[in-house]
Amino acid sequence: MDNQQVSAALAEVGTLMELLGENPFKVNAYVNASRTISQLTDEISSHVNKGTLGEIAGIGATLQEKITSLVKTGKLEFLEELRAKVPPGLVKMLAIQGLGPKKVKALYDLLQIDSLEKLKIACNENKVADLKGFGAKTQQKILEGIEFLGSVAGRVRLDEASSVANTLLNLLKDMKEVIRIELCGSLRRRKETVKDIDVLVSSKNPAPIMEKFVTASGVIQVLGHGETKSSIFVEALVNGSRIKMQADLRVVKDEEFPFALAYFTGSKEHNVAMRSRAIEYGLKLNEYGLTGEKKNIACKTEEDIYKALDLPYIAPELREDTGEINAALKGTLPTLVESKQIQGVFHNHTTYSDGANTLEEMANKAKSLGLKYLGFGDHSQSLTVANGLSPERVKKQIAEIDELNSKMKGFRIFKGIECDILADGSLDYDDEVLALFDYVVGSVHTHFQMPREEMTQRIIKAMNHPAITMLGHLTGRLVLRRDGYAVNQEAVLQEAVKTKTLIEINAHPMRLDLDWIHCKRAKELGVKLVINPDAHSTEDLEYYEYGVSVARRGWLEKDEIFNTLTTNEVEAYLSDRRKAFTKKK
DNA sequence: GCCGTTTTCGGCCCGACTGTTTTCAGTCG
Ligand SMILES: Nc1nc2c(ncn2[C@H]2C[C@H](O)[C@@H](COP(=O)(O)OP(=O)(O)OP(=O)(O)O)O2)c(=O)[nH]1
Ligand SMILES: [Mg+2]
Ligand SMILES: [Mg+2]
Ligand SMILES: [Zn+2]
After folding, report:
1. Which CATH number fits domain A339-584: 3.40.50.620, 3.40.1280.10, 3.40.640.10, 3.20.20.140?
2. A245 C-alpha vs ligand 2 centroid, how far in Å?
3. Could you report the per-residue pLDDT of A530-579, keeping only the tens digit for each?
């Protein structure tokens, strides 16, 4: 079993134990281990083999045993026993808004309800309202919740969620009652997918803000409407598709804003760690302040809060409880790469293949974004569905780039190609054609169904071709749409070190590939990365910002990102590599 | 189930909103 499978199994253990009414702290041990393993940079199997499982925080003797069983046999007897005790319908019932493990257990214990169908019937027969702790309103809400299940949205891509969030932000930000307003939660931490929109406002007069929020256009349902907190379910149109999301609004006093900002930014696990640290200091940390027995510790910024607990500021992207607090203590937090340090981007498409804009339009847009250089990467000849370039058209494009380069002042265009890595790991052009480019991005676009080991060898073979400069979208995954092909990312990253292949952080919000966890792994291994927007239009060029977010979540610094180099440095680097390639032939 | 400059038992983050209650449990953030 791999990390994600082990993580899923432990999460299921947690859910089933909860439904059996187990001790919540015990349940939390499983849930916590599940999360830790899902965010591990290295492979859980390597910990099993090396006997280092116990070194992972939150994994003790019992969990070591269970994880070892999962990794070695793919099975866990304890989980099988739990599954035998808890009907699967109970887990489905948990998805109903407002129904948690206690209520589901009560419904099962008292009315033998073990499916959505039976639950609906019981509600309609008015049996649920009579149970202790239930009532007419709860019964009605359950019925509505069952109907709502079909339209319940899962997670949403960061770019789409940002778009919905900005609509809400614009709705509120100019109200006279609003002093400060900020997007928080996973949006602020720049997670690749977002479950809901978390908005924080400071004000002396919350009521009108709450009112405006719950009556906003597109609100499908008001989930809660209180003095300091409201929740809604909204529908919005983003790029022609309907997006349904929850949104939460917290309103606090302005002097509480930094504490509320820290709280509402999360993550939950980071909050728990920070609050536990406050306890060690004899203090209490919540969304309103940092308080002791008699004293209140005034903080004007988040930085002040960290400082009060003897920690340096921790950037939102790092607040995932993946070691940031320990690193902060040791003074080994990274100085994260910033958007303004990106000098240019590679891997962009034009009308030569499947892009919407010309070379010149793309170059002008890049220049207007403040970039100093732009690299192209249209598709290669065998990718006919995307209008891949024949060697003749390659030469034509190169001539056009030469002309643009002589015309544009203070801006440099690099000649590149997104060259298909064919099924056998060979490249899609002869070496004579490959020698025409300043750089080559190697990407897999076909034959996704290969066995994992074959795919890994295919990519590794391509990385060993001296013409390859960088590897495009390593796994081919599409966020929330398609899993990547089976590939040993660890092996590819290790090979990248050996072959000095740059690994792309594909910044297209549909891809974000490498993901942030493997960025962290790449950092540990000493891999160099390059942030590319994979732009198919001028607007897409701005996607590199999403790649910067991934890099920051992966703890990456300026020096670890190739395209923070200046034009001259890039020029020198690429020309050296090209010389090595052409000399070899 | 995990963990330890309050160490091997007794804690484990803390609060808002709702609906059921008459003082609070459950769910969610
Ligand atoms: N202290 C504390 N804070 C929490 C807890 N649950 C949530 N929070 C805070 C931190 C979260 O980032 C923030 C928003 O909660 P969300 O459930 O919306 O999670 P978040 O935005 O992190 O991720 P998501 O919405 O799932 O993409 O509220 C909790 O149990 N304790
Ligand atoms: Mg959220
Ligand atoms: Mg939320
Ligand atoms: Zn591609």
Report:
1. 3.20.20.140
2. 10
3. 999 999 999 999 999 999 999 999 999 999 999 999 999 999 999 999 99
A323 contacts: CB under 8 Å, gap ≥ 6 = none
Q: pLDDT tens, A397-429?
A: 999 999 999 999 999 999 999 999 999 999 999
A264 lines ligand 1 (CB under 6 A): yes
Distance CA A563, CA A540 (A): 17
Within 8 A by CB and 6+ apart from A342, the residues are: A371, A531, A544, A548, A561, A563, A564
The CB of A246 under 6 Å from ligand 1? The reply is no
ipTM surpassing 0.90:
yes
* CATH class belonging to A263-333: alpha beta
The CATH fold assigned to A3-151 is DNA polymerase; domain 1 (1.10.150)
CB A238 within 8 A of CB A215: no
Q: For chain A, report the end-to-end CA distance as a whole number of angstroms.
A: 43
C1’ B27 / CA A120, Å: 20
CA distance A200 to A335: 27
C1’ B21 / CA A90, Å: 26
The verdict on the CB of residue A196 being under 6 Å from ligand 1 is: yes
